[in-house]
Structure formats: structure tokens, C-alpha cells
Amino acid sequence: MKRVLLIEPDKPLSDIYRSVLVSDGYTVDACAHAQDAVHAADDNRPDIVVLELQLAAHNGIEFIYEFKSYTEWQDIPIVVHSIIPPAAFGMNPRMQRLCGIKHYLYKPATSLKRLRRIILETDLAALGTT
Amino acid sequence: MVISVDSGSQERLLRALAEQIKLPLIQIARQAELSQLTCSDKALKSIEYTADMAIRLIDSYLLSIHLQTQASLELEPVSVGAILQDTAHRLDRLAKEYNCTLEVHLTGRYEPVMANRQSLEAAYTMLGYAFIESAPPVALKHQVILGAHRSQKGVVAGIFGTQPGLSADAFRRGKAIFGSSRQGLPAVSSASGAGIFLAESLLKSMETPLRQSRHRKCGGLAATLLTSKQLQLI
Amino acid sequence: MRNQVVTPAIVLSRIDYQEADRILTILTPSNGKVRLIAKGVRKPKSKLAGGIELFSTNDVTYLPSLRSELHTLVSSRLLNNYGDIVKDIQRTMYGYELLKRINRATEDSPDEAFFDLLQIGLESLNNLSLPTEIIELWFSMQLLRITGHTPNFGTDVDGQKLMVDSEYVFQHEAMAFESTADGPFTANHIKVLRLSVAANQPAVLAQVAGAGVVIQACTGLVQSILGNYVRV
Questions:
Q1: φ, ψ for residue B175 (rounded to 5)?
Q2: Are B160 and B145 in contact (CB under 8 A)?
Q3: ipTM confidence
Q4: Which run of H or E residues covers position C222?
Q5: CB pairs under 8 A between A and B
Q6: What CATH number was assigned to the domain covering residues A3-129?
Q7: Domain C5-81: top CATH class
Q8: What residues of chain A, 26 to 55, have a C-beta less than 8 Å from chain B?
Q9: What is the pTM of this model?
Q10: Nearest to C196 by CA among C214, C184, C179, C180
Q11: Domain total for chain B?
Q12: C-chain residues within 8 Å CB-CB of A88?
């Protein structure tokens, strides 16, 4: 069963995303903080990371940097699902590639249906490369 | 007489509010979608109080602007205990959504304090909201205390929680950057912190600024309220 | 006994290695870019930004290897920590971008100017009152200057002095402006561009009245020149 590491600081939203991903057959480890997410990934290697960038204590960019510094995690795809619009970072495909981000989803504009579809596509794409 | 509004600070507050409002609106959208997917009305129930809190955010902002234009503020004797109890009741359902334990803790009885009731209620509701939606790390339980204790200057009443990172320095920096940075208190909360700075604006209008404080080993934010000379009515 | 090297350094990147080690790529003023192995630092999963802090200047001691380009880290002492950068997510992103850009720009032997540039860049980013856009323009222009690709902001393509009331378009082949009606660049743009070359830190640009209006266009131009001439 594929495992999703969900990093979402807002509990009601985390519960919603978790419930739809579980119903899609994923095991979900939900964390609100970047440091908790690193520990969760260490306990159980995720297949996909779904990440909100705007976190408390350590932000999502710090998490990506730390996460990608571990060779055993470098090929794990990261889907950013953030309340911050991509234009705020000048986010473009080059930047995404540099940060190891497979998809950048703007949360207000991403329905549950779209989120599930992107995660499934990311999952299938990762299968194709292994 | 025209009272001028500090437009710079109001603009920052508006920007922080605009960022903050995204969250309940996203929650409502996803809850509605989930309820369609699952054919369950559980999510619909959540929508009601999510929308309620979003409206309170906007109303608090409008109140803070309104108070800035008043030449004088109407004060009356107000029971701190009653205000905190009402606030806890108002926030109860939200706290459950966030798996947060809400507790009112009053050390003894207090004389009424002189305050603007509407501002005080709004301020503590906004503060409570901000603390509830700030999830502590996994190692800590999520508890929010609406507490009051006496000090030499009056009654210190505020909201306290188990989130680490809320220091006097962090609060001071937050006051300098909120509205211009996406997160006013990044050490404490992933959100813009609009609730905290709205509360600060409301309390400032009563000349009782918000300060970092402690209550029962929990850090938080509180205001020192001056007591009324009137007898407490039971 | 081999001599140890002691040097100020800024970490450009880090990656884990085998069971408990990390490989750090650091930038130093005198020895350029150096790769170090830090032994036994990785157990268990480190605290975020633990060990040698990112966005910091450290006094690093290492033992040069005789056989390879991977030297051994002996110790590190924090000199300056630019901890406010991570308090703002956009600054965090831009901070990492600075590190990546310098890392790529210094593929060959870098000189001291790259270290100084990065240090000032991080110091400026750490100043939360200084807009990121100003830092971005200044940094990009300084990168052009250090790599020897400063455009001509004195005369136009025909060698004529740039005029206050003229409008210009930038000619990339000539690396100079050309006068044209309705050109996107005016005297204000050119003033800011000149200052971004001459200023020894971005805070100077922030003092220029009206800079905010033209910053975006100036940055766009500089970034496009960087893309053409410097592999960052």
C-alpha cells in the first residue's frame, strides 16, 4: 500500500485530505510541523510527500532542503499544495525542478478531485521510473 | 471633529486579515466538496461554524476601524470571568474541530473591570481563534487556557497555550512585520496571525495593550485590565 | 603532520553520505569552493538546519586530503547566523536560490568576490526591512559584474551619451541601450541600473526615491542578461 506523507498545519484541512487519500487506498502519515515530518519519514519511508509550504517553526522550503539532502529520499516526489500562490516565489518549471517539486498546486484553486488526480498521476509516474 | 485613522497600520491589518480569511474559505470549499463525495452532513455542520468564525474575523476588523475613529470610547464595568466564559463557549465547537482542549481558569473572583464590552469580547475571541488553530508539535498536547489572575495593576486576562515559541521578542517582531510578511508569528503559527493583531488593535483602543504573559506554566498573550470602583453585582 | 586549514566559510549545499556522514560544499574567500566530509554527524535524522547552519558564516577547520578533493571537516564555529531569513518563507526561498546560483557560478575557481557577494546577500536578506526585490536586483547585477559581463550603462549602441528625456530598448548583442520611441527603459531605469552596479550593498538602492516603480523591469533585464551569459 502506497504511503503519503501529508504535511498540513491546519487540522480540519488535514483531516479532509487524509480521509480522501485513505479512501483512495493510501496510508497517510499526517504532520503539522516540518520537524515532525522528517521524523515520520524516518520511521516510515513515504512514496509521495504532499506539502504545505507555510508552516510554523520551520517552513516548507527548509523541509524540502533537509528532505532532499538525504540520498535515500531524493527520488521521492514532492507535491506542493500551498496557500501561497506560485507567483509569490516567481515559481516556474526551472525553480520547481531545482527544488525537487513535481507539482505546485495553489490550495484555494485545487479541488479535492484535482488533488487526488495529481497524487495518482505522481504515483503512477514514480512507478514508471522505478 | 474628524479622527484620523492610522492608515498604514490599518492597511497591514487588512492584508493580514485577507491572508487569514483564505483559510476558513478553503475549509468551507473542501468541507462542501467532501460532503458531496461522502453524502454525509458531518462536513456541513463544520461549515456553519467555519463561516461563523470567518465573519467574526471581518467584524472584528471593522470594529477596530470604527473604534479608531471614535473621539472617546464607551467604557462600562465588565465581568472578566463572564467574558472569558462566553468566549470559551463561543470557541468550543472550533476547539473540538482542532482537537484542542479549552479551559477557563480564574484564580478567585474579581471586581468588574472598566472596558468596552464589545471590543473585549471580540479581542478574546480573535485571540482564542489564533491559539486554537496554531497546532503545537506532536510531542505536546494542544491546550488553550482562557485565564485571568490579579496583578498589582489590575486583572491580567488573556489566552494561553501549549505552543512553544511565543516569546516577548517574537511578539515584538511580529508587530513589526505582520501584514508585510505572510506570517506574523512564524515561530508559533502557520497563519498570518491576523487574529492576534486584530485583538491587539481592539485592546489598544482601550489603552490596554496586549503583552506576552504566562499563566499556569503556559505562555500566551494578555492585557492588564483596570478594575471598576463599583461594587460587583451578583 | 598535515597542516589544518582554518577559514571562514558559507555552506552552499549538503548531502548525506553512507551511514552517518555528510558531505558539505562550502565557499571560502581564499580557497574557493571546497568539499568536506563531516563524519558521524548524521544520527539520527538531524534537526532541521542542525550542525553547520545554512544561512550562516562559520569559521571552519579542515584537514586537506592528499589523495582527493574531499577534505575532512575537523570543527566549525559559528560566526554569523542569518536566522531571520527563515522567518519569512519568500526570503527562505530566495536565500536558497542565492546559494544555488553561487554554487553554479563558481564551477571553476572562484575568487574572493563571490564569497563577499554571498555574505552581503545573506546579510541583506536577513534584514527584514529591506525588500527582497531590491536585494535580487543588486545581487544579480553584482553577479554580472564579477563575471565580467557588466552592460554599458554610460553610452548607447552608437557611443552617444544616454539622455535624460530619451527612451531606450536594450540590445543584448551589443550589451547596450538603443534609443527608440516608446522604448521600455527610461532615465529612471538607467539610474537604478547604474546604482545597482556601483552600490556596495543593496541597502543603497533602497534609498533611491521611485526605485520601487522600476525595480521589476530592471530585474527582468538583468536576469535575461544573466541567463544569456552566466550559467546560473
A1: -65, -25
A2: yes
A3: 0.93
A4: helix C211-229
A5: 83
A6: 3.40.50.2300
A7: mainly beta
A8: 31-33, 35-36, 52, 54-55
A9: 0.89
A10: C214
A11: 1
A12: 90
